[in-house]
Amino acid sequence: MAGSKKNGGSAPSAASVVRYPPMHDQILPHLRRDIVENRWKSGVRLSEPLLCKQFGVSRTPLREALKTLEAEGLIRLVPHVGAVVTDPGATEIGETMEILIGLEQLAAIRVAQSGRQQVLRDIQRIYEEMRQAARRGDASRYYELNDDFHHCIVRGTGNRSLVDMHEKIMWHVHRERHRVNEVESVSVESAESHHEIVDAIVKRRAENAGMAMRKHLENVSRLMLANRLAEQGVAAAQTGQAKSKTKMKTRTKTKTTVGRRGRS
Fold this sequence. Notes:
Layout: H1 2-8, H2 23-36, E1 45-46, H3 48-55, H4 59-71, E2 75-78, E3 82-85, H5 90-114, H6 117-136, H7 139-155, H8 160-181, H9 188-192, H10 195-202, H11 206-263
Antiparallel strand pairs: 1-3, 2-3
């Protein structure tokens, strides 16, 4: 009797306790996604009170999440200002793309060498869905599938370190792709540009697969850099015009003041 009573009153085992990730880890993906998808534009200051209210958290977990975003290069924590979304220039974008090209070239080679049938089927399936989305002119679905396509190849290597490195670099690449995709429409040619990659991987021509991936991403890189350089050119021109107008106003005001003094 005593033994059964003792067992009946025992506490739940540790295995039955539900554990949740820390609060800053829960809000981090949402913050990152809003930056990557350009909901918060480059140069925008993030309001801590507003974010605390949005996520229903105190400033402590929010600031932990912001520190992680700063380490990832997505924001800067400026003293007496707060968190500001970074604005990478053309040089930084070019360097990021060089790393991405190297990683995905290696991934394409490894996947072609391994020839894992499930991975090959997934790549072919996603590619066909990309073509269908492009024919429909469904840009949102196309670019979602495009991300799946590249992730599928990288994950297909089975190399955890490569997957982790690729994921981190892709947060920055996604930002620029979203900027480009806001003004670029999708076409059937966009989907067909992946054909050479798929063909080489399926036929297990490893070096051809790597070179096809490099060629494809170099074209993507040129488009992204051209878009950013054009933006920088427009911004510089607008800044120059604003400065010229300010100078003209100052000169006009000075001349008016001098003229009044001469008449007095």
